[in-house]
Amino acid sequence: MHDEIVPFHLERLPSEILDRISNLLPERLAPLHYQSEVDAHVSAIEREPADVDVISAICEMLTIDINSRDSQGQQALCVASEAGNVDVVRILLNAGASVDTDGVFGFEDGRNNAFDSAVMGRHIEVVKRLLDKGGDIRRTAMALSMASAWGFYDIVECLLAHRSDANIQDDDGDYPLTQAATNAHLDILRLLLDHGADFNADYDAALVCAFMSGYKDIVTLLIERDGNGRLNLDAALLVAFEESRMDI
After folding, report:
1. CA–CA separation, 145 vs 192, rounded Å?
2. For every residue of the chain, which 3-state class applies, written as one string?
3. What is the pLDDT of residue 41?
4. What distance in Å separates the CA atoms of residue 29 and residue 147, rounded to the nearest whole number?
5. In angstroms, rounded to a whole number, what is the distance separating the alpha carbons of residues 229 and 233?
6. Between 1.25.40.20, 1.20.120.50, 1.10.246.10, 3.40.50.1260, what CATH number should domain 1-135 receive?
7. Taking a C-beta distance cutoff of 8 angstroms, is the pair 178, 200 a contact?
8. For residues 149 and 140, is the Cβ–Cβ distance under 8 A?
9. Mean pLDDT: which of 86-95, 218-227, 235-244 is highest?
10. In the predicted model, is pLDDT for residue 195 greater than 60?
11. Of 46-60, 109-123, 141-155, 171-185, which one has max mean pLDDT?
12. d(CA 137, CA 175)
């Protein structure tokens, strides 16, 4: 259930800013233009390009929590993070927006946080700013998993540099290591291993996925890094035989 709609007192805005708000969405020029302050705020952020002056003005005059949701359930910081607008993200963070609140984009449960929103667009500067602002690094599980799966080396490197756990499971129970192996991202796989990705039960899954997909370089790297001989090579070889991957 969304936050209660609060009247948006447009008369408190400077006329220049008011005119610019009125031009954001012409089809919504009702007497009050927006259902609430939050609706106007998010609409200004969604606009391409975002009007930084309007956003700053609304931040200064908000009478409600900056982390409130608009009538569509969206939060300003998640919208700005998904758009990759570093200036807007900076304004929102300085105005007290919480890095660790959830948005409504992307996943089946309808929720993800600002980190995930920025990663989906590969907005590295936004990711850095969110991390520098002190976001809970434990909230980056899905972000690290997505970046590993999609081959976003710079994002993975950034998250790991800020001490994101290379062995953390995402909301679906997947590990970054398996995501990288399954999608043949050798450089990311090596990066994860260098940052302590462990030879846990999922390591076998990564090897099996690599065998199934015929990723010889991935298989070679995983075997080379298995210094203690903990890999279940029998299972992997069986998969290779079943998938006609005996060339590996």
Report:
1. 11
2. CCCCCCCCCHHHCCHHHHHHHHCCCHHHCCCCCCCCHHHHHHHHHHCCCCCHHHHHHHHHHCCCCCCCECCCCCEHHHHHHHHCCHHHHHHHHHCCCCCCCECCCCCCCCCCEHHHHHHHCCCHHHHHHHHHCCCCHHHHHHHHHHHHHHCCHHHHHHHHHCCCCCCCCCCCCCCHHHHHHHCCCHHHHHHHHHCCCCCCHHHHHHHHHHHHHCCHHHHHHHHHHCCCCCCCHHHHHHHHHHCCCCCC
3. 53
4. 40
5. 9
6. 1.25.40.20
7. no
8. no
9. 86-95
10. yes
11. 141-155
12. 16
Amino acid (1-letter code) at residue 131: L
The dotted CATH code for 140-248 is 1.25.40.20
Burial (Cβ within 10 Å: 0-12, 13-18, ≥19) of residue 130: buried
Quick one: tokens of 42? 């998010």
- Identify the weakest region by mean pLDDT among 11-15, 138-142, 170-174, 208-212: 11-15
pLDDT at position 91 is 81
What CA–CA distance (Å, rounded) separates 215 from 12? 62
| Amino acid at site 182 | T
Domain boundaries, the chain: 1-135, 140-248
For residues 68 and 5, give the distance between their C-alpha atoms in angstroms, rounded to a whole number: 10
Topology alike, domains 1-135 and 140-248 = yes
Do the beta carbons of residue 35 and residue 72 sit within 8 Å? no
Q: Are 113 and 100 in contact (CB under 8 A)?
A: yes
Token couple for 121: 């667009």
Polymer length of the chain? 248
Residue 20: per-residue pLDDT: 58
